[in-house]
């Protein structure tokens, strides 16, 4: 769900599916499942290079390094990744979420990895101090170009509940402490097996192409409604802490 509140109201809802993967289990899943591949082409493919690397060779090492830079050691933690996978070789993820939990299953931290259509990514760290009643919650300056219709001086609010039998993730945007838009994703867990993957491949064909296509479709509709437009090269001083394709 995505709903813009001002200066015009505009919203939409779309049905979809998304993966929730234990990073340590991906190699064994790729061997067990016909339709899931690891770092090679397949119907659904996980590639380490599709995510931030921080100079590391695997996504797990990258998240460990990033968390440690924020004073949190997650080397012994379970790390779950909520994300789209490459579908028949194509990928675009507006945002991926990492959830780290200790050996007792208690949440330790979370990371939101936000992407834009210019091939750039920016991570946002949510430490244990942001956790209340099982929900990670953080307001932080956006400092990243994610949409031509969102001012650069806006603020993200993340509200992330670690995945269980159900998932509920929300990312809202504020300007001058007033809500500009609200976005959320929710759903129920399904088993990860070839039958389920086959069903969703048919039910939602070319899901990642659908994602990028809908982004441009809704952007066109907003543009035609003369919503204020911000170019990528405007306010470069407010674009900080992001990584391009060559620096991932």
Estimate what percentage of residues fall within beta strands.
25-35%
Query: Could you give the distance between the termini?
Result: 29 Å
- What is the count of structural domains? 1
* Strand elements, count: 15
Q: What would you call the structural class? A: alpha+beta
Largest sheet: 7 strands, antiparallel
Mean pLDDT: 95
Level of helix content?
Answer: 10-25%
| Total of DSSP H or I helical runs spanning 4+ residues | 4
Strand order of the largest sheet: 2-1-15-14-13-12-11
Q: Can you tell me the residue ranges where pLDDT is under 50 for at least 5 consecutive residues? A: none
**Radius of gyration based on Cα positions:** 18 Å
| N to C succession of SSEs | EEEHEEHEEEEEEEEEEHH
Shape: globular
Question: Quick summary of this structure?
Answer:
With 248 residues, the protein is an alpha+beta fold. 19% of the residues lie in helices and 33% in strands.
